[in-house]
Input
Amino acid sequence: MAIHEILIQQLFNGLLIGSFYGLVAIGYSMVYGIIKLLNFAHGDIYMLGAFSGLVFLSIATPAIGAGWGSLILGMLISMLLVGLVGVFIQRVAYRPMLKAPRLSILITALAVSMILYNTVMLLSSGRFLPFRTEISTESFFLGPLRLTETRVVLIVAAFALMFIMHMFITKTMYGKAMRAISLDRDTCQLMGIDVYKIIALTFFVGSALAAAAGIMAGVYYGTIHFYMGFLIGLKAFTAAVIGGIGIIPGAMLGGLLLGLLESFGTQIPFIGTVWKDVFSFAFLILFLIFKPNGLLGRSESERM
Amino acid sequence: MAEIKKKAKTTNPFEIIVEALFNFFENKVYLYAFIALAVGFLIIFPNVSSRFTQEIMTNLFFYVVVCLGLNIIVGYAGLLHLGYAAFFAVGAYTTGILSSRMGMDFWLTIPFSVVAAVIAGLAIGFPTLRLRGDYLAIVTLGFGEITRLTIRNLDITGGAIGLIGIQRPVFFGITLNQISHFYYMFFILAIIAIIVSYRLENSRMGRAWAYIREDEDAAAAMGINVVTTRLYAFIIGSSFGAVGGSFFAAKMTAISPDSFMFIHSVMFLMAVVLGGMGKIPGVVLGSMLVVLIPEVARGIGPYRLLIFGFLLLIIMLYRPQGIWPDKPAISAKE
Output
């Protein structure tokens, strides 16, 4: 392959992986913006989405057949279910801790993450499970770009979800309320915004998007595993920091950028795929040193 | 730190016992007598117990050392550290490489492993602590994973197989190779760690940590440099972990990346949080729970982490100060 073909292919791959990172990072960033919590369980929510999609497909495929129809239906149902799980976690574990010392809520988030992935580990016996969709894997070429039907649909779906999310945040009352709460929670309460309801909604939306990303990752990689959420949780945090934590378009931008950095980074001979994760972590540290507010963040330093 | 609450006379039997015990140990003679008895018992313990029990006790002392280090970061400075196993790995691998590849004497490798931990601590702590305390949690989580990946992929660390042939320490002409030797070694190390922790807690630095933990802005207004003080906590705590790692390497003589997983960081954190963050007896109690529960209840094996996850959640929701009780109001009358 000529060099420009490799570059175009890597651009596409980077955008695809980056859009998964972006979808997870949105939830991470929203929750951080609204209650200043680093939600360690968010990666596990993504994993939960993939598993719930798999369970749905294994039940529904005999009834309604395989293919895009059942996959999309499964995705919507999983988004709804996992979104509700997110709201439940928020209600049971995080809401009582909102006024507690910050260390407590961080440890609570860690506990939730442990509970989620260990439960799934026990239920799945810790195995890698195949995520079969029976969608054609035949590849075709678009100019120099080698594509499959799956990849095209995935990238379109991911970008569509991000667009819908962007519209939701910028154009609806709820989105406005979220942005307002992230600026000043107490004043919002005085202005008659039902803060707890909006926080619950934030968890619902964030978890639903993570679940969608989880299913897409399942379709893309073909296998899922209980530990799949761990690294992507870290990557989503990195993406959120790159874009500016608490800023939704920043999370999407950060996710795409991180995906591109990784896919081009692994092409550098010295780095290779073995060092991919080390490479993106190094980027996190560099961003924290030189641009801690992220690409879209305000430059003023934040006070607690 | 000193929240003096006016407590009504309690009828809870647990609290009555705790109060009675605290009143009993208020008398220093009783307290010292009790400590002397406990130490005396632990000194003769290897003569009256099996090798297996000694192994468990050695593991317990090791946990006490490492968790007291983590307690400086989590308990005293109020920062969440989720990659402690990585600093432990830094210490273990520094000793491992210097000892097995360069034939350096074990005791000489310890300063090197402390220096390595300080460098790693600065590289992680400086960019992170400058921003917000909470960022440290996820950056250390990432660092833990990255360290494990790095030692897995480098040649000098022996890759996935790890290092073998780490030399046993020689102490006044005796090569330490029996389990009872390591029992005493870790016992002494645990006592040193307890004394150092106690001295740190009551030092100027310790008070600054407590102040920052309770109210960052007020501490800054009083002239405490928040970033530097936190960085000290992070580095001192990390050095404890590295020293623990060096001794661990010497005891095992072979180390591999599997000993430094995220699970281990979580276990250390469990011990600190369960017993009571920032309280030395609490950390000792927490270490006992984390080490002894899986030994006593063998059947829980695969459910261990799930159970610990729920325990962590319950502790945080209902008893964030940990199992070890706070001093009752009476003893805080100064």
Summary: The beta strands of chain B are 170-171, 174-175. The longest helix of chain B spans residues 226-252. The CA atoms of residues 95 and 195 of chain B lie 24 Å apart. Confidence is low (pLDDT under 50) at residues 329-334 of chain B.
